[in-house]
Amino acid sequence: ARADIVQVVSSYLPLTKRGQRYWGLCPFHNEKTASFSVSGDMNLYHCFGCKAGGNVVQFVMEMERMTFPEALAHLAKQLHMPLPELTMNPEAQQEATRRERLYALNREAAAYYHANLWTAKGETALAYLRKRGVDDSTIRRFGLGVSADEWTDLCDHLRAQGYQDDELVEAGIVRDREGRRYDAFRGRLMFPIQNMYGNVLGFGARALGNDNPKYLNTGDTPVFNKRYNLYATNLLRRQRDLKQLFLVEGYMDVIALSQHGIQGAVATLGTSLTQEQARLMKRLAPTVWIAYDGDEAGQAATERAIDILEAEQMNVRVLRFPDNLDPDDMLRQRGVDAFRAVRPISSLAFKLERMERGYDLTGEEGRTEFAKAAAVLLKNVADPVVLENHLKALAIKTGFSRDVLLAQVGVRQRPQAGPINVRVRHAPNRPTREATDDSAAEKTLLTLSALGYLPEGMIVEEDFEVPLYRETARKLMDGMRPPQILSEAETPEDVSILSEIFSKELDLGREDALVAAEDCLRVLHRRHIDKRLTALRAQMESAQGEERQRVLSEIMTLSKKIAQAQGGWTNGKDVM
Ligand SMILES: [Zn+2]
Question: ipTM score here?
Answer without folding.
Answer: 0.95
